[in-house]
Specification:
It contains five helices and six strands, in the order H-H-E-H-E-E-H-E-H-E-E. The protein is of the alpha/beta class and 156 residues long. The chain has one domain: Rossmann fold, CATH 3.40.50. Strands 1, 2, 3, 4, 5 and 6 form a six-stranded mixed beta sheet that branches. Strand 3 (65-66), helix 4 (75-90) and strand 4 (101-113) form a beta-alpha-beta unit. Mean pLDDT is 77; it is low at 1-22.
Length: 156
């Protein structure tokens, strides 16, 4: 099974399931022959300190992380959990014990720009989510796939 094609479940099972349309862009695919023996042991999500956040409720804040789906708090930590959980769900087919090459998924958030409540009620729009994904051999550190930029946009 191809790691980038199974990440489609990222959107299906992710936090934005109320949205009805998807526009997910995956780069070059990894062949099933390459990934057939992968066993996901860990998922690491990083949200760089350089990303900007805001809780302002305007149509389109000019920041990297916009999230109003949880009570006010550390927005970077909140979206890191959302991305981690979605990747964990998407990777379920690569967790069976009969697969013997332990790998970790490493995701670095680029943008998580969900609609603000005001934008959702006035005009709608698109939730813009993008991240860099790598698949790394857990024992050797060898990069098996990526880095690849995944755009996982949702039409609201």
């Amino acid at each position: 099974m191809n790691i980038f094609s199974i990440l489609t479940a990222l959107i299906v099972c992710g936090p934005l399931t109320a949205c009805t349309s998807r526009n997910t862009i995956f780069p070059d695919e990894v062949s099933s022959a390459e990934s057939t023996n992968w066993h996901v042991h860990d998922i690491l999500v990083s949200v760089p300190d350089s990303l900007t956040t805001s809780d302002v409720n305007i149509l389109q804040p000019n920041v990297d992380v916009v999230w109003h789906g949880d009570p006010q708090g550390d927005r970077k930590a909140q979206v890191a959990v959302i991305l981690h959980d979605a990747l964990e769900t998407a990777a379920q087919t690569l967790i069976p014990e009969n697969m013997h090459r332990p790998v970790e998924l490493q995701a670095t958030l680029i943008q998580f720009h969900s609609l603000t409540p005001r934008a959702r009620s006035v005009i709608g729009g698109v939730h813009k989510i993008s991240f860099i994904l790598k698949v790394v051999d857990q024992n050797t550190g060898e990069i098996l796939a990526g880095p690849a930029e995944i755009e996982a946009d949702e039409f609201a």
